[in-house]
Design brief:
5 strands, 8% strand, elongated, 158 residues
């Protein structure tokens, strides 16, 4: 039981760190001369992403990644509260659901960025590759889903 609790806490912290870094960092789309994140495109200077106000897709990615990060942090707080306050059979259901919704938001945000990343950049930024922030967002998805499964397993344990 203690090993599972430590694993849950570790996976939860890893998931939160991955989400923070991927949302805040500036490497969703990179090249030798520039880098683009969810808010700014930078080469020698930074400026807002082209048409970011008119592109609902970019705003959807921004919103879902922020919500996923917030829900992951809220899930950890709920986990600690449930660990202290609830009875054996009632533990970790809410935390598991919060983490599941967080994973859903990660999937939506990363999928929308994958499908529509070309709409967010100027023509000069087309020749690039996905950066480490994008990869970290996709890595956060299975880590969060593993955490959901561990919460479900932990709920059944005595």
């Amino acid at each position: 039981m203690l090993v599972i609790l430590v694993s849950v806490i570790t996976f939860h912290i890893i998931s939160a760190v991955l989400l923070f870094v991927s949302t805040i960092s500036n490497a969703w789309w990179v090249s030798e001369n520039f880098y683009v994140d969810l808010w700014f495109a930078c080469n020698s200077t930074c400026f807002p992403v082209i048409n970011s106000e008119s592109k609902g897709y970019l705003q959807a990615v921004q919103t879902t990644m922020i919500l996923a990060t917030i829900l992951c942090c809220v899930g950890f707080i709920v986990f600690v509260l449930q660990l202290i306050r609830l009875k054996q059979g009632e533990r970790f259901v809410i935390t598991s659901l919060v983490q599941l919704v967080s994973a859903f938001f990660i999937m939506i945000g990363a999928s929308v960025y994958t499908a529509h990343h070309e709409n967010f950049q100027a023509k000069s930024f087309k020749d690039g590759n996905y950066g480490y922030s994008f990869v970290l967002a996709w890595i956060a998805l299975p880590v969060t889903m593993i955490n959901v499964l561990m919460y479900a397993f932990l709920r059944k344990r005595k």
